[in-house]
Every structure is written in C-alpha cells, then in structure tokens.
Amino acid sequence: MASNLTEEPAVEAEVPPASGREQTPKTSVVEQTHGGSSEAMEAEAANGLKPFTLEKIDTSNVENVTVEDGLKARGSVGDEIHAEDAEIEGIRGKNGSPSECREPCSEPLNSEEFHDTNQEIISAEDHLKTLSFAENQVPDNKLDAISIENEPENVRELEPDIDAMASVASPSSNGYAGSSSTKSDGSFSGIEEIDRGGTEPDNGVDEFSESASWVAGKRHLNEDDASISWRKRKKHFFVLSHSGKPIYSRYGDEHKLAGFSATLQAIISFVENGGDRVKLVRAGKHQVIFVVKGPIYLVCISCTEEPYVALRGQLELIYGQMLLILTKAVNRCFEKNPKFDMTPLLGGTEAVFSSLIHAFSWNPATFLHAYTCLPLSYSTRQATGAILQDVADSGVLFAILMCKHKVISLVGAQKASLHPDDMLLLSNFVLSSESFRTSESFSPICLPRYNPMAFLYAYVHYLDVEMYLILLTTNSDAFYHLKDCRIQIEMVLLKSNVLSEVQRSMLDGGLHVEDLPVDPSHPTLRSGSGSPHLGMQDHVIAGSPRQENAGIGGPAGLWHFIYRSIYLDQYVASEFSSPINSCKQQKRLYRAYQRLYASMHDKEAGPHKTQFRKDEDYVLLCWITQDFELYAAFDPLAEKVMKWLGCEVLEWKQDRGSGVETRSSFWSGGVPVQAAELWSRFMLTVKV
Amino acid sequence: MGLSSPVPVGEGFQFCVFDLRRGQHEGQELDKILFFFPIDSPLPLQLSVIGLSEGLITFTRIFSPDAACEVIEAERHSHTFYQAEPDIWMIMVVEKTKDTDAIGRSDALQGVLKEVHSLFTMFFGSIRGLLEKQPGGGTARSLLYFFIMDYLAEFLVGKKLQMPCSRDCLRERGTVQMLTTGREAAIEVQSLVRLLESSCVANMSCHSLVLYHDLLVSTTLPPGDTANLFNYALLRLTPNALSSVTSSWSYLRKSSSGASQESVNPILANIGVPSEEVSHSSRDTSPNRQGQRHHVARPLQRGKWWRGEDGFAVTENWGSEIGNRIFYTPTVWLQQIEEHMHLCVYQHKSLTIILLISTSLLVNGEQGISFVKQLLLENASLKILKVEEKLSKEWGGENAYHVRGYRYLLLDNDSIVSRASPPGKVTTLSKGSLMAMSKLREEVDQEKRKAKRDDPDHEKDFEVCMRAKNNAWIVARVSRGKELYMVLEKASETLLFASEAVDKFSNRFRPEAS
C-alpha cells in the first residue's frame, strides 16, 4: 500500500506554540492508496495543503480553531476543533455514572439469531447471553448484530508529514489534555495496580497507594534510577531510540533517565553486535523484556511474574499506541537524524500511555486480542447498526459507537476490518484524552494494524458522559460532513431511545454467574460452595433469583468466566461477584487467566485443546475449539465436579461432532444450563 | 513416533567460569576468566561473553539485588547463569537451532551447571578456597579446565555436544534413582550396611552407599551428599562405567555413555589436541602464568578406574594431600556432613559398595585404608554374595519401572530421588508431546519459584491437566514437595479418564515407596 504512495513536499511550518490553537493551519501530505488518478491525488494533496479553519459555535469558548493535518496536528489532540452543538447539550448530564443497581431482567429474549454472513458481526456477549439464560430468566438486554457495511468507493489514506514531524521541536507544542479518569466499568474494572505487601512483602512501593481510584497521567516525576522507590516499582515501561535517547518512561522524568536509557541501549546493541537479538533477561522474580521496532526500542522491567509473552504483547501495544499517534513514518526522522529526539512529539500523551498500561492489569482485551460489547436488545442494536450503516455509505471508513471500552455498534466499509487491538488502542486514546470529552474533535490517528504508515482522520464526539461516536475517514476535509453525520446519528439514536437503553444497560451491568440457572428439581443443590480460605460460608440455593443468592458464585462452584468467540474477535466476561470481591482477588484472577491464555497459546507447543488447572485459589478450566475459547474459574473445592464436568464437556463434543454444530448444540442451552444439568447428573452419579 | 536426530549444540556453545572479584583494573579483565570453552575462542570473544554477563549481573541487581541475572534469552542463543559461589559465576551459552525442541528448560540447563559445580566441590572444595590458597589462580584454572572438559565429554554425541533439550523433559538431572526391593532383600541389605559400618574402626566416622546396576539400594548419607556420590558413581564407578566395553543402559546417561569411551578426552580429541599434551596455559588468559604445567587430579577422566583382583576399584594418579599426609585413595569432601572422606569402592558383579571413611580419624594413611578393606572382606564377603544373589533375583531389568501406557517422571525434592519411565520408552513419545511437557515443566518451575519466594515455608500444591494439540494428555501434579509429570498419548477423550489414570498411578507408584 505504501509503495503506491506519492509524496507531496511538505510546507515547512513554524513550531506551534504551547496552546497552538490560534495558529494558522499548517500542511499535510495527502496520498492516494486505493485507486484514483494522479490528478485526483494532486487535487487531494492540494486540499490537504489548504488551511482548514472553522469558527467555534460554542460562544463560551470563543476562539478560532485550526485543524492541522498530519503530524503538526498530531502533536495536539487538545487543539482539535471545538464545535459544540447546542442540540447535544440536552443530552449531557442525563447519564449518571453506573451504579451497582442491577435490575432483574424482564423482557423476553429475542429469538432472532445473530450471525448470518460476514456482513454481520455478532456480539459474543450477545451470543453467549442468548445461550446463557433460560427462557424464564431472560434479561432485557437482548441481542443483535453489529454490521459492517460497504466501503466507500474512494478510500484515501493520509501519510504523515515527516518534515513537519521533525520540525516539532518543543515539548510545549503538544496539547494533549490527559489526566481524565478512565476508570472502567468492565468486568475487571476497578482493579488497581496495587500489590500491597501480600504475596510480595519485599516490594514496598505501592503503585497507586495514594488514591483508591486510579487516575491517568504520570506520577513520581521526581524519581530517577538512583531512587530506591523507583527501583522498587513493580512494572517499568521504557521507550527509547536506537541512539539511547529516552522517549517514554512510565515512572520518573525521561530526561533524568538518560543514563539509564543509554544502558538499555547498550545492552541491546551489545547483543546485536554479536549477531543476535536479546529478548528476555530473568533475575529472580524480575523479567526484563526487550522489543526492537526499527529505530525504536521498548523495554519492560517487571516483577509481576506475568508470562513473557504477555509482557511482550504489552510492549507491542505500547508501540501500537505510539504508532496511533505518530504512524510508522516517524522512522524516517531517525533515518535523517539518528539522534532525533522524539520526546516532544509525544509530549502531553502521558495519560494515553498510563491509561493503556493500567488496562494491562484489568482489561482482558489486552491479552485476548478481542473486544467486548455492551449488552443491548436486538432491536436496539439493529437500529444503531442501521444508522451507522447509512453513514458508512457516505464515505466513512469505520463508524464506531462505544460506551467506555465496550462496543455498542461497529460499521466498516466493505473489506475493511478493524483489528481488536486497533479498537483497544483507539478507545484508549479517546477515553484517556480529556479534550475529547469537552468538544467535538477531528483528529488524525493511525490504526497500526490497518495501515501503520498512514493517518486516518477521526471525528470523535461524546453523546453523553460515557458514550461516544468515532467516525474514521481518509479525507482530511470531511469534518463538516462527519459533523452532519453525527447530528443525523444522534437524532436517530435519540428518537429510537438507544441512548436511554445504553444507560440502562450500563446500570444493569453484564452477565452474573448467579443468574445461571440451577436445576429446580434438585432443591438441595449447592451452588458455589463457599471457600473457607476466602472466609465464605456455604449457601444453599435452588434456582432462586439472583438477589437472594448474591455473593455465592454460580452453579457447580462457578465463580467467573470469559467466553471468546474466535471468528467474531469478541469476548464476554461475567461480572465479578463474591467471593472474587476485592481488587486484589480480581487482579489475581485476571493474572491467572493471563497465564492460562499464555499456556494454552504457547507459540511452539500450542494451541492446546483443554486445560484443567487447580491450585489453592481456583480451579481453572480452559477449553479451546476452532470456534471459541472458554476460560472459567471455579471454587477449588469443586474439584470433583469440575473433573466430571470437563469429562462431560469433552464427551459432549465427541457426541455432537465438531465445529459449529458442536458449539451450537452445546451452547444453545447455555453454559450455565449445561453446567447445572451436569451438576445434577454428577450428584446422582457419585451420590455426593 | 520417534524423535528427530540429536540436536546439535555446535559452534554456538560456550561455557565459562569467572570470578567477579578478579581483574578489577582496566587491562586486567582477562584475569576474571577461570575457564572458557571452546578453549580456542579468541580472547575478544571470551571477554565479550564475560563482559555481557557481568554487565547484566550488575544491571539486574539494580532491581533485583538478591537474585541477579539467571537467564538471557536471545533469538539465537540462550545464556544460563549460575552463581556457584559468591562472585563466582558459571555461564552456559547454548545456540538455538532450527529444530524447535533444541533448548531445554532453563532449570534443566542450570542443573548442568549445578551438577558440575557440586561434583567439582566434592573433589576439590570450593573454587574460592582454591583461589585463596593460590591467589594466582593457576591451580583453580587447571583443575577446572580438566574437570569441566572431562564432564562436557559426557554430553558428546558424535562430535556434537548435546545439552538437555525438550526430549529430556521426563528426566531430572542430579537426582537419585532407587531400586525398590522386596522385604527379604531389604533386610539383607540392612544387615550388610551394619556389617560395613562394623568394618570400620570403632568411633570412626563411616558411611556407605550400596548400588545395584545403576540404581541406589541403600545410603547412610544425607540426600545432597548421596546425590553427588550417586551421580559420580553413575559416571565412573558402576559396573557399566568401569568396564571398557560398550555400556548397556543407564537411566540418565544412556544416550551419552556409549558415545565416548576413549581414554583420550573426546572433546580434546575433537579439537585435535591429545589430552595428555594439553596444558591449560594454551588457553590461559592470564599472561603471568604462561607455560605452567601441573599434575592435575582428574576424577572425571575416563578409563582411569579399574576393578582390582580383590574386588576393590582402583584408580591411578590421584594423589591427594590432606594436611601433611599424602593419600592415593581418592578423597571427597561431603558438603552436608562437612567431612573429608576416603572413597573405597568394592564391586561384586552388579553390586557396587561405596564405603566412605573419615580422613580425620584414619591416622596411618594408606595403611589404615588397607586394613579397613581387609576387614570388610573378612566380615562382609558372604553377606555381599547373599545380597547380590537376592537382588539379582528381584532385578526386573532395565524396563522394571516401565508402566504400560504411561510415560512419567516422579520427583521427590526432599530426598532428591526420582523415578522415570525408561529412556527407551520415552523416545516413543511424539515430539509434540515432549515439547508440550517441556513447556509445562517450565511453567511449573516458574510456579515453584514464585511459591518459594512468596512463602518459603509453605509448599504450594497445584495440578495441571492439559490436552495438547496432538490429543495427548500432559499432566503435572505438585503436592507436598513431590512432583509427578506424566504424558498419556493413548488416553481416552475425557479429562476424567486422564485424571483417574493419574490418581491410579499416584497411588501405586510413589517415590517414597522406592
């Protein structure tokens, strides 16, 4: 793709000042990637060079705002267009933050099935949800599909302006207004990266000991490699250039870490000079992981005992996040000047990286390489998909409606698919940049898995406190068009009550293992026998509603599960419930899943088919087929049940053949239904 | 399914020992190096390997002061570190080949370093002690050179060194394999041990090990010392090791024992230098010791142990100096009981008796040893015959501990004992199964390390039962310091079946039953 690109000379620009907002537009390079004549390209390039200014509508913040194409604008997400629409004001503030309130489900399950062709993407959560609830326990958040629509004819992508990139010399040129609180409501939400004493008493420094709630942005700026506290941080991330210049450090001031950065560079170069490439250094519980991406080196130093592949994956995501902001074209800066200082280009993006790094400790999407959806009724999602589809037909590459990190609907141009990692990085970028929340924005971004060399343009607008719309285009002049699209979308969403449904779904939360049905014919069945080591008492339930069973886990000792649909690239995780209550327990389970995933997906020996893993904390079961992956945590005291269950699962598979048929036959009753059935049969068989 | 051809560890293999306290000044860096293999490596390369190692040891101590660098994984090489003694490091660099099963677990590779060091210490004491005795380092270098070269020869397959790899995942280096005896035989062995002790002069510290073929029957030593002596016996003292003909089998060393029976060190021969002619000075990195030649005891040299007419094994050129006295009977330093002991080896058919007599109490040197030997023959000859007879009747052959349908390894960490499927049977496993087991063991190693760090007094129990992509069940179970690893390739589809099979096996075969 990149080879077809023609490059227009960039217009040299002055370095924008700190605020950058009053600056006149700079320049951009527009390149044609999908067909189109050279004339067309030139025309596009000319458009790209044209200053693009608009006046803000919001009178409370009167200023002329510029859009800077390419990397000039890149350094300033906070400087995007601020054009607030009065129409949306009414919507803002209606949605409170999600509470713990969980309403019982009342609406019948929509029986329409979700997947038919590749034109439709089915929410894994939807999918599992249909399967998971017995008919008399149907939730109101019904299921439907997210569709991908046709790609517009004239898809263009933009290559960043390298010279402009190189010319951005001042750290103050950035305008990222990070530091928004992006505490997630996801299944692992609220897990703070805290390892207070506990299993690692020697590690005296708590990462987030100052506050119970996590706040994005850089901390401990006063530290450097001479600080004892710095050395005791559990997980460091560093980005440096091949000449040893620091680009990013999770803790401490990059400039103070120049010497340390040079040491990392020396280690990498020393091994490289011997014709090899260093990947990992292990010392006690510490691991040092190295990833080399051309002229950019990424290093993680961690004592969290996560698997090597997981930490490596995290470095890859950090690199991806960097590409999302700068594109791979930044490499050319290093070709021109090996000692190029990249720090100013990323200035102000601390919140983006700290938020991503925080996600490594709570968001399963970071290791599952799948995204999760907000539970919604079929009709609601259908309505959402339809309006996004209309927009996509008018030249939008991707239209994404999200609520926090959960996807409400996604529409893509034909043949254009959005990689889950890109989705993660994009949503992280939007969620962690405060400026997106306060105004509608038009910002160049790069999707590293889609095309690491080129910029797309993202129109971002929050529809309420947590719900936001992203429209991606290749056209740098599309702001007004996308704004119109947004207005259109917003109107439809308002009329069809989608906004209120989304809010209700947020309040309801996701799946709960307590909702899984227990066979009522066995009134004495114990569901989730309490775990003495977690201080839980046994509870006896018999298919009673969730409210009465709160705090005891699901049937057969099921505590939590994650279901990942392979061909949908989606996952659904149950909400945490007792006894996985505390952040520490949730984080421990998260890490256990992470290890299980790494173990099952071993690069050389895997992927394996089944794994049963029992220790003092859990019984973990993983089952991978060509269609799905199931990760489940059970009470460790339910060992026999699980073995039996595992056995049944496999026999089931054998009985029903393979592939889709297996899945549909097994899952159509829902995991919980099956688990309950198996539990009953187990009770009868072994006479426990 | 058989395995692929042996994994070559070729030019990329390096082994070095260095002392961080030496060569502190610029220009004297070579003084750090106590041993380097290949010996003909250019000095800049040697310095580069040591430099990287030292650099990373220093670097990792910034974050992990208590446990410095253990492993470097690079794309083409794996560096395994072992701090044998304070500031004395052993590094092994193994090249990764295209064959993905080439590299073993890092713990298995580190096991090689641990074994060579513990054997070295058994014969020569600590490296630091040698360096303090002779600050120039000449003695330490000479001893290390011949010892490690003789040791590495054990890993030669053809002309290649074959380090532990994934196909060795059902073995555990450095452990003891026991012979399970019937009640009668056990009573006979017990009375033999009492007789052996009575052969020694009153109040004399005396210990014994009894081996049958390559398996341990009895020991009066603590586990660590037993494991060291047992492994040395396997290398040089058992009937298989003593005879000069092709060896038959050995639990741990079958693959390599037949490969290099020459008296000339095959590694030395491979590089074109007869061992007798080699002077360590040829690769000595310290300029002020050029030309030094030493008479060096070589406990691991092949073909230097014979069975004498009286049944006692004898060795040549092994003068050892304890205080002011010279002994021609080998002596060993047993770390756990902290004693220097004379090593007397008696052999009758497949029965090997290792008698250890404290040097501190045997005042009249070789004469005293002769007296003890004579006493042993007088007192215990008949009992030895009887025990040998009993054991030979019970002896089930090399596949005695094969359990049909299972490929397993049982480990008891407290007593450093293991039992495993015979190597010949393990080779029938597919490469995929072995790879999966090797990876699972790597995970278990990590879990064990983590549990040990979290709470050294609490042994964490856990179990993993995994169905690999080739449908084999790969099982690991750690419970109360004992570990069971198992591969079931022909098990049924169900987890329950696999789990029951493991339970059945666990109940039937336990290391402590040995």
UniProtKB/TrEMBL annotation, chain A:
GO terms for cellular component: endosome. Residues 235-356 form the FUZ/MON1/HPS1 first Longin domain. It comes from Amborella trichopoda. Pfam families: Fuz_longin_1, Fuz_longin_2, Fuz_longin_3. Belongs to the MON1/SAND family. Plays an important role in membrane trafficking through the secretory apparatus. Residues 75-92 have a biased composition (Basic and acidic residues). Residues 395-488 form the FUZ/MON1/HPS1 second Longin domain. This is Vacuolar fusion protein MON1 homolog. Residues 557-640 form the FUZ/MON1/HPS1 third Longin domain.
Automatic annotation (TrEMBL), chain B:
One of its GO terms (biological process) is vesicle-mediated transport. It comes from the Eukaryota. GO terms for cellular component: Mon1-Ccz1 complex. Residues 15-125 form the CCZ1/INTU/HSP4 first Longin domain. Pfam families: Intu_longin_1. Belongs to the CCZ1 family. This is CCZ1/INTU/HSP4 first Longin domain-containing protein. It comes from Amborella trichopoda.
